Amino acid sequence: MSLSRGVAEADALVDSFGRHARKLRMSVTDRCNFRCNFCMPQHPTWMESQELLSFDEMTRIARILARLGVTNIRLSGGEPLMRREVEKLVGMLVRVPGIRAVSMTTNGAILKEKASALKENGLHCVTLSLHSLKAERYHEITGTRGVFSKVMEGLDEARRVGFERVKVNCVVTRGCNEDEIGDFARLAHDAEVSVRFIEYMPFDGSKVWDPEKVVSGEEILGKVGELYPLVPLEREHGATARHYKFSDDSDGEVGVITSMTRPFCSDCDRVRLKADGKVVPCLFSVEEFDIKPLLRGGAGDSELAAFLRKSFLLKSEGVEKMLEQHVELKHVRPMYTIGG
Ligand code: SAM
Ligand code: SF4
Predict the structure, then answer these.
(1) Average pLDDT of 142-147?
(2) Which of 44, 108, 149, 307 is most deeply packed, by most CB within 10 A?
(3) 104 pocket-lining for ligand 2 (C-beta < 6 Å)
(4) For residues 285 and 229, is the Cβ–Cβ distance under 8 A?
């Protein structure tokens, strides 16, 4: 049997549950200019600079993964714009045969300065993380002062330079910003952007995660629905979010990423690569597989492909099963090391 894009089944990245990897989440650095309270521990430990993959190494892995059926890459971090000349990496990745789209998730602090270069180098889509529309609260959440207006300017600039899509991600936590759900819905409706609400996950690195602080997608949709009637959109295969459009003529959208209350593990098509070369088959998996020794030890492409296939084969069934079996969710790794 062959896959739709002509990758032979035997050559594809398939896990033991028959799921195929099509999307790569590539973290390019663990450094960040923010200290979001749901992501960064109080005392982060950083990767050594010589541990970080070079752009050539990242592109080589992307090329091999593309041969195995991966079509989409999302760059993340830490803060991806903190990686010097990351736009050059974008340019290298968009030229990899088989890669259809390269996107980025960013906190937006230096997006205003970088948006044009990213666009010129071929970045398709930008997702801006924005957890409050109130400057003072935004600064509290991100642990960083004086950046709110810069982030909003970054959003404007991203929209101006004309990426295929600009989305906004908002992590909702109880007792912090759930009172702003309506304001974010209004932003989606009036500014006609896609706003996705993310359920708070146990990846804060400080072990302060509390299930009581998770605001469910259902509750979020209920609040949005009180303001605007919503029409569900068909969920794409492998999508983490459920999307809705407004019933009037606004082109905006809202989405919920229900990783905690209604995850979509059964058709998950993502594989993750950390900035130091660790392959992570699932966000919740404890295991990581270090490709760097092979990469720097002179391995050929077929050996690297075999390593990637073997790592992905060990992808766990996912958080859905863990929740069903009441497995205690561990604070596996802080989000800044894996990129979401
Ligand atoms: N620094 C970039 C940013 O914030 O957009 C990219 C890296 S960040 C780790 C990727 C995404 O993970 C962001 O949208 C962030 O809000 C989200 N995130 C971080 N910690 C989270 C948590 N504990 N639960 C849910 N989402 C989280
Ligand atoms: Fe940095 Fe993004 Fe984590 Fe915030 S969520 S601390 S911006 S990596």
Answers:
(1) 95
(2) 108
(3) no
(4) no
